[in-house]
UniProtKB/TrEMBL annotation:
Classification lineage: Bacteria, Bacillati, Bacillota, Bacilli, Bacillales
InterPro entries per record: Auxin_biosynth/cation_transpt (IPR050982), FAD/NAD-bd_sf (IPR036188)
Keywords noted in UniProt: Oxidoreductase
Protein name: Trk family potassium transport system protein
Gene Ontology molecular function terms on file: flavin adenine dinucleotide binding; monooxygenase activity
Protein species of origin: Shouchella clausii (strain KSM-K16) (Alkalihalobacillus clausii)
The keyword Oxidoreductase belongs to this UniProt entry's keyword annotation: yes
Length: 346
């Protein structure tokens, strides 16, 4: 059994940012990650993905993102940046290692891994990100086998989609970006549960995130009146929605698929050959065997990532503290706060 002051579970942007600050404090720590190398979670996403945050909002503490600070990095650029970040600061990461169980005995944590190794730690920071398990609604189970189905997580590009009309369920940023790409090759239907809120990437020559900062929106905290209002109105950012609105069919909430036709809460049915579920992700914390960590909805109980369990922390959660927590830059700020709290909760 190997002992550390801190074990960080997850080696994406959140885990690497935590590692940066832990190294500055000269703490003995280890980052455990199930990917093959730094940045792999970005590399596996669809080929045309471009971040809707510019490079100046997509960097972690201590290392600027190379290139035009006002330009938008591709998913592969983001992956390469994270690899460079890990190498630049020589962060101790064990890859290809999945954590299968986390438990606490007395004042120490035990981290059980797929490699059969057990890590012992005084403190544990869970940095697995806001979303890690693709969610597909139960309706998918009743759809006839002749209709191809995949989650947006498994979408790579138009070449993998069979001929025929495509239904995309979910009108968030991912669903809209995929729809905008596929309208060049297919008849596309986009099912929107709610009317999308759309913001352009730039206003009066300034990126929309620059305006968020100036107007204080990025600093809106999770429990503030403004923060609560914003959480219900997460916008689609960019011009892709306008392309989709012109060239695809927009429908309401999907309620059923029968005989190769999709039916919606309102409007006429449409034929469909492929369904792409852009229905988001759910957190899976079934491997955490510690009482008092989650509420009835299995969401972490925390204040700015500090849990009720002494020595256990989260970082990288959506709206962990403020609107900016969803951005790579905001993850770095949350990581700085988190590491500053370790000595107060030891």
């Amino acid at each position: 059994m190997m002992e550390y002051d801190v074990v960080v579970i997850g080696g994406g942007q959140a885990g690497l940012a935590v590692g940066y600050y832990l190294k500055k404090q000269k703490r003995p720590f280890l980052i455990v990650d199930e990917q093959n190398e730094a940045g792999d979670s970005w590399r596996k996403r669809y080929d045309s993905l471009v971040l809707f945050t510019p490079r100046c909002y997509s960097s972690l503490p201590g290392l600027d993102f190379s290139g035009d600070p006002n330009g938008y990095p591709s998913k592969d650029e983001m992956a390469d940046y994270l690899w460079t970040y890990k190498e630049t600061f020589q962060l101790p990461v064990v890859y290809e290692t999945k954590v299968e169980k986390l438990e606490k005995t007395r004042d120490r944590f035990k981290v059980w891994t797929s490699e059969g190794k057990i890590y012992d730690a005084k403190q544990v920071i869970i940095a697995t990100g806001a979303f890690h398990t693709p969610f597909i609604p139960p309706l998918a189970n009743s759809i006839q086998p002749g209709i191809a189905q995949l989650h947006a997580f498994d979408y790579k590009g138009p070449e993998q989609i069979v001929a025929g009309p495509v239904l995309i369920v979910g009108a968030g940023n991912t669903g809209v970006q995929i729809a905008a790409e596929l309208v060049e090759h297919h008849d596309v239907v986009l099912a929107c549960g709610n009317k999308p809120n759309v913001l352009p990437q730039s206003v009066l020559g300034k990126n929309v995130f620059w305006w968020f900062d100036k107007l204080g929106l990025s600093k809106a905290t999770v429990h503030s009146p403004l923060g609560k209002w914003l959480q219900k109105r997460d916008p689609i950012i960019g011009n892709d929605f306008y392309t989709v609105r012109k060239r695809a069919k927009l429908k309401g909430r999907l309620i059923n698929v029968t005989d190769s036709k999709a039916y919606f809460a309102e409007g006429s049915p449409v034929s469909v050959q492929t369904i792409i579920w852009a229905t988001g992700y759910r957190n899976d914390y079934s491997w955490i065997d510690i009482d008092g960590v989650f509420d009835q909805e299995q969401k972490p109980i925390h204040v700015r990532g500090v849990t009720n369990v002494n020595g256990l922390f989260f970082v990288g959660l959506s709206w962990q503290y403020k609107r900016g927590s969803a951005l790579v830059k905001g993850v770095g700020e949350d990581a700085a706060y988190m590491v500053s709290q370790l000595s107060k909760h030891s």
